[in-house]
Amino acid sequence: xxxxxxxxxxxxxxxxxxxxxxxxxxxxxxxxxxxxxxxxxxxxxxxxxxxxxxxxxxxxxxxxxxxxxxxxxxxxxxxxxxxxxxxxxxxxxxxxxxxxxxxxxxxxxxxxxxxxxxxxxxxxxxxxxxxxxxxxxxxxxxxxxxxxxxxxxxxxxxxxxxxxxxxxxxxxxxxxxxxxxxxxxxxxxxxxxxxxxxxxxxxxxxxxxxxxxxxxxxxxxxxxxxxxxxxxxxxxxxx
Length: 239
Ligand SMILES: Nc1ncnc2c1ncn2[C@@H]1O[C@H](COP(=O)(O)OP(=O)(O)OP(=O)(O)O)[C@@H](O)[C@H]1O
Hints:
Layout: E1 2-15, E2 18-31, E3 35-39, H1 46-53, E4 61-66, E5 71-74, H2 86-91, H3 99-111, H4 127-140, E6 145-149, H5 157-174, E7 177-182, H6 185-191, E8 194-199, E9 202-208, H7 220-238
Parallel strand pairs: 3-7, 3-8, 5-6, 6-7
Antiparallel strand pairs: 1-2, 1-4, 8-9
Helix pairs in contact: 3-4, 6-7
The structure holds adenosine-5'-triphosphate.
Adenosine-5'-triphosphate binds at residues 13, 15, 20, 22, 40, 42-48, 183.
């Protein structure tokens, strides 16, 4: 059964007298426990879609229905509190500090390889670690759906691949629904079981990617899927 259904979703912004269509009639039905990547070039509406899904932005038209209680979001920048330690940052979203919650924080500190840095402050850890803390903070909130807005965009290639693999491990372990936004077609193909491409607010491609994790970026099947997405986006650019 679909956990999240988006029907005829549109979003228009107005700047002075100019109307910008950020999202144009998006229809998407996402099943529980699916890893979806949303890919497209800058300005195609990816962030607007995530913001509407988590209530940070109002939609103009359309309907969103979901049976989930919690939606969590991980941003491109870790947005950690500099005066709190790694552990305290991870606890930040918890409403209660009971035994079960404490267990969750410990679990994710260990899973995300942060345990030995739990008493460090954000200024004392690397960018990749800070992004893992940000991911851990969202996981501790125990969301049914995790939205990720280019969470690895600021990382170097090595750390980016490392974190991609960690996110896949977490996905396989926790089976949560993930909606991951990126402008990188290779990243979208590496991560997504379903890849949705946007251009100028429109959905131009929606394909399944059944390749087994961890994917090999030079395998012919991987390259074919990547090429299909890339061509759809480029065709749209060329009109
Ligand atoms: N608050 C806003 N006010 C006016 N226009 C906006 C606002 N937010 C987004 N837009 C416009 O909506 C369109 C889609 O923006 P959005 O940020 O969703 O794109 P994106 O695909 O996430 O881009 P990027 O990859 O660069 O983050 C763009 O034309 C942008 O200028």
